[in-house]
Design goal:
This protein is an alpha+beta fold. It has a single domain, classed as Aminopeptidase. The protein contains 4 helices and 7 strands; from the N terminus they run E-H-H-E-E-E-H-E-H-E-E. Strands 1-2-3-4-5-7-6 form a 7-stranded mixed sheet, sandwiched between helices. Helix 1 crosses helix 2. The longest helix has 15 residues.
Length: 154
């Protein structure tokens, strides 16, 4: 199944459930807690109108948010249903991000992952990303996120 652009009318709640289910393992692991706890269907609909929301499947088994950020296309809320992992869905969404970035003349794909999620860092390195920085959430003196980028294949 190729990625599809989610547009209204859409079952935003199915995308929200996917994100909540697949990010749930982070509870008690990352600090501060995931922003997915503040995410609602209206936020996903807004992301779809101001940026892009891509899904695979109906109901979705994978999703990602794309947002232009300076010279990069930022990839957020990348989630793949546990029962559908290992089928190339994350790679397909990142390849779509690459095509969308190239079409907009952007040089980079960018994402962030939490400091505590070493397996995510390794997975993104395998997908061609490299660390470009570390940032702290407001109120934290220590880094809480790792910023990673990969060059867009123009």
């Amino acid at each position: 199944m190729p990625p599809a652009l989610a547009r209204a009318p859409c079952d935003w709640s199915a995308i929200l459930r996917l994100i909540q289910t697949e990010f749930a393992y982070m509870d008690g692991v990352i600090d501060p807690p995931s922003s997915m706890h503040r995410l609602g269907v209206e936020d996903i609909a807004r992301q779809a109108s101001e940026g892009e929301v891509w899904v695979i499947g109906a109901p979705p088994v994978a999703c990602a948010f794309f947002t232009v950020k300076d010279d990069a296309l930022y990839v957020g809320k990348l989630a793949v249903d546990a029962a559908h992992r290992g089928q190339g869905h994350a790679r397909a969404l990142l390849d779509m991000a690459d095509r969308r970035a190239a079409a907009q003349g952007l040089r980079w794909l960018e994402l962030q992952t939490r400091i505590e999620l070493g397996a995510n860092h390794a997975a993104f390195r395998r997908l061609g990303f490299h660390e470009t920085g570390r940032t702290a959430h407001p109120g934290y003196a220590r880094p809480t996120s790792v910023t990673m980028r990969r060059a867009v294949a123009l």
